[in-house]
Design goal:
Number of domains: 2
Number of strands: 11
Radius of gyration: 20 Å
Shape: globular
Distance between the termini: 33 Å
Oligomer: single chain
CATH superfamily of the largest domain: Bordetella uptake gene, domain 1
């Protein structure tokens, strides 16, 4: 699949009014396709969410056309930085995912802050899981802890500072073990490593491995939530197995700060309308995407609180 792909849409014109009068630049908006930057490779759950949004938005809003631009690398950092420095003209928005967005801030690796973005809102959540190859002798979290006692267990995570990484480090502390952590460039690589039996386990997300689990091609030994997932009631929580490890990723939309309020308001309203659309919800359900709608202000507060909590983890054990 090519890195840059077009999502075609319907033609038309939308006029954006500000104070009852539409400035020329707003009246002509959009006059070109809007780029959605996805900070990961094509084919992952973040990419799928962006594409379902684009398809639904184009159908609901004649005149809008979206381009998906996959910019993976460094646990989303490259993509986040590209969004932050994009021209604030309404023609570039992007997906974010947590905790990577804030982890790069607290580690001082990211060349941005939360103030670099206008937070449009959250779309979905994706509970953390622990997966193993289908023929693995590791069947429970206790088995994982026992197998790791020797110190030579290879465990894949989606980059340093990712939700997978933080969950794995939390488990290490809980179980008193140390993994040979293998940072990857995304869930596509993690999935291939598990399906090919190239790693002993992987901390990842439910949407990324639930289909393979149900097909018997891999085995999810635990979900990292307070209670079992409705879509996977056969999978016990880590807490049930005696390990206080929880982790959930969020996936939302942000834009570079400074977009004209008339244009930004339309984009925000579009996101809210798409998330409420039954067809969007149906497609997300079919793709095993668990929706967790949050408004821009609510998601901003969530990100600010998350930054504080991730900073506490980083200060205790920098990565």
């Amino acid at each position: 699949m090519q890195k840059r792909t077009f999502v075609t849409g319907l033609a038309g014109v939308i006029t954006l009014a500000l104070g009852g009068v539409a400035p020329a630049f707003a009246a002509d908006y959009p006059s070109q396709p809007i780029t959605i930057i996805v900070p990961s490779k094509a084919g992952g759950s973040t990419d799928t969410t962006a594409r379902i949004f684009a398809e639904t938005a184009e159908a609901k809003y004649p005149g809008f056309e979206f381009v998906i631009d996959n910019i993976g690398g460094s646990g989303g950092q490259k993509g986040f930085e590209t969004i932050a420095r994009a021209k604030p003209d309404g023609y570039t928005i992007g997906m974010d995912f947590t905790p990577q967005l804030v982890a790069h801030i607290v580690s001082k690796r990211g060349k941005y802050t939360l103030d670099s973005f206008h937070v449009m809102g959250n779309v979905a959540e994706d509970p953390g899981i622990v997966a193993v190859p289908k023929d693995s002798k590791i069947k429970t979290m206790a088995d994982l802890a026992a197998a790791a006692k020797g110190g030579d267990l290879t465990v894949a995570v989606n980059g340093i500072g990712s939700d997978d990484f933080l969950a794995a480090k939390t488990f290490e502390k809980e179980a008193g073990v140390t993994f040979n952590l293998l940072p990857t460039n995304g869930s596509t690589e993690q999935k291939a490593a598990i399906l090919g039996g190239h790693v002993d386990a992987s901390f990842m997300n439910l949407s990324q491995m639930i289909a393979q689990h149900k097909a018997g091609d891999a085995h999810i030994i635990a979900i990292l939530t307070d209670k079992r997932a409705a879509s996977a009631e056969d999978i016990p929580t880590a807490k049930e197995e005696g390990f206080n490890v929880t982790m959930t990723a969020t996936r939302g939309f942000v834009a570079p700060a400074g977009i004209d309020p008339a244009i930004q308001s339309k984009l925000d309203d579009m996101l809210a309308a798409v998330m409420a659309d039954p067809e969007f919800q149906k497609k997300c359900a079919a793709s095993k995407i668990d929706l967790l709608p949050m408004s821009g202000p609510d998601y901003t507060r969530y990100l600010e609180n998350l930054e504080t909590s991730v900073k506490a983890v980083y200060d205790a054990a920098p990565w």
